[in-house]
Amino acid sequence: MPAENNNLNNAQFRGISHAGINGLSVNKPALTGTAADVALLLTGEGNPRDASRLPTMARLECIVAGSNAGTWDGQLSGCWLRKDSRNAQQRLGSPGSLGGKDFQTFAVQASGGRIAYDLARLALKHAKNIAERVVEIADNAWNLPTAANGDTVAASVLQTIAPHCETPEFSTVNVANYPATLTDFVNNIVGLLPATIAGPLGGAVGGLTANPNANRVYDELKAEYSASHHGRRDAFWAASSILTRARQLIYIEGSYFGRTDYASPATNGDLIQVIKNQLTAKPNLKLMIALSKDLIYGHGYDTFKAREIAKRKEVIDDLKSHAAGRVVAFHPIGFPGRPLQLMTNALIVDDMWALVGSSSFRRRGFTFDGAADLVFFDKNISDGVSTRIRDLRKSLMAIHLNINAQTTPTAFPNPNAVRIHDMQQAFSTVKDMLDRGGAGIIEDIWDGNVSGTTAIDPAAYPADDIADPEGRDFNVISATLFALINAAGTAAP
Questions:
Q1: Radius of gyration over alpha carbons of the chain, in Å?
Q2: What percent of the chain is helix, strand and coil (3-state, nearest 5)?
Q3: Which of 230, 214, 218, 215 has the alpha carbon at shortest distance from 166?
Q4: Residue 423 gets which letter from DSSP?
Q5: What does the pLDDT read at residue 479?
Q6: pTM confidence score
Q7: Residue 491 sits in which domain range?
Q8: Count of domains in the chain?
Q9: Is residue 305, in this structure, part of any structural domain at all?
Q10: Cβ neighbours of residue 345 closer than 8 Å, sequence gap 6 or more
Q11: Bridge partners, residue 16, by sequence
Q12: How do residues 262-281 score in pLDDT, each as one tens digit?
């Protein structure tokens, strides 16, 4: 096999996460102190930069962006940039791949407009700390591009991150009123910061107060301060809003699925409850969920994994009971007998609205883990739906249901290719296939049991607040979590 080149090594700015998922890390210091303290312990400056995170936090963002003479391009997905994730045609064994799991991912791409620029700005947050970043964005190369003309898609870039993570030092400073100018920031905030960042940031910002792009630097600092204190949960609010408007079909795809709040009785903070309420209010509404069968956890997190699989089954069974005959959930299969690992998350409502990215549908996915998403709709309406969003749903379903494209204009199309064009028929297509056992293409939701092995006792499951934390409550659970991880020995944080 010929030698390979990793062109991403040539990128000017790079950011990674050594613990993209629970338990995968080469950095395991003893955990102690405040949330800001441990976030700094788990940060690695350099190029690529290992962005700060809290223990057990996943950093799942995958953004590639760049500019050519002021014309920006950006791509967003939930993809893993590693050798075994480069595969396709999984039902044929991913010919030419290096072997490994059957990964399936997709991406959204923007070119020549402000969405691509926004993706680049978000990517830069992971690749550069705040002191280096403000110097970079003060350059005219980061001037806002002209808005694109002629396209019919409207979109916004969203971020999910827990408090204390963006710049942990910022979360240690509390002021009643945020400074009104960049000069006020230098005079009133920098001196309150820990010395490790006060010097570099003060020197960087102090030299930019008269820069023509000082307003952009000020806005970056203000957003960073807010996110460091309060976190961001843009995808949660977007999903919460659109789910209350669903009328025909909710399509969900991804690796994880569960409650977004554990309050009893359930509130609208739990998007599962929001879906249930909408299923009650709209008798024609259907729910379709495509999920990875297995969940990816690292060494030492077996009880976390078992708990999540059990909770997922419990939630889906509850939805099916609540709206009998109107909920289908399945695991796609790649190579025969081998489950397909879905890497990019999608929420599509009524073929009019879509959320695509790395925020997983569970509490930690919408409030704790680091993620990036694109929310969008297409103003090109045909038969009452957005053309591109309908095509996105159809393309995802076609992969999972093994619906091959029409090879020639005169070839007879796969009947299911016609059925999935319509939302109600698309639902029936999956239901019919599951009722017949899945045809070796999809299968019903797994309960976690493996024949011939002993299941993990539910009594060993970690508490909801530990396994599926709410980002703003981290300091409440930190002592328990630190003790659990420090006692685990080889289990990484």
A1: 23
A2: 40, 20, 45
A3: 230
A4: H
A5: 63
A6: 0.93
A7: 1-166+231-493
A8: 1
A9: yes
A10: 78, 253, 254, 255, 355, 356, 357, 358, 359, 360, 361, 365, 373
A11: 50
A12: 999 989 999 999 999 999 99
